[in-house]
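Ticket #4471: structure output looks truncated?

Reporter: J.K.
Steps to reproduce: submitted the chain below (124 residues) through the standard prediction queue, then opened the result file.
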Amino acid sequence: MSLDQSSADPAGATVYPVEFPAAGGPQLSATRAPLKRFYDVSMTVSVELGRAAMPIGELLHLSEGAVIQLDRVVSQPVDIIAQGVRLARGEVVVVDERYAVRITEIESADAQPRSDSPEMVIKK
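Returned output as attached by the reporter:
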């Protein structure tokens, strides 16, 4: 049977091949794209202080008061991350009794997603 013919499936419904219009039309360049319409879209931004790797058994035995040593020293900047992409780095400060981050370095616009971010980690 060719693709331009209809057929009946076992349940008795008539099945027709799908037809898509030709792709094309006007293309918007990055400089002409109306980015202002996205200015009010909210994203979750995370600040990563550091990481630690430990066996599951050790993790399960953690209790109140336990201390987990991270892989960063105090003088290293923290990472500011959105959607698995590091946007900037900065230093931890306190503003009105709340933690905050003073940005000290902005990533370049062509930064790639971090290979170790949850969105990018692929387990085999």
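Triage note (M.O.): checked the attachment and the full token line is present. The longest strand covers residues 85-95.
Status: closed, working as intended.
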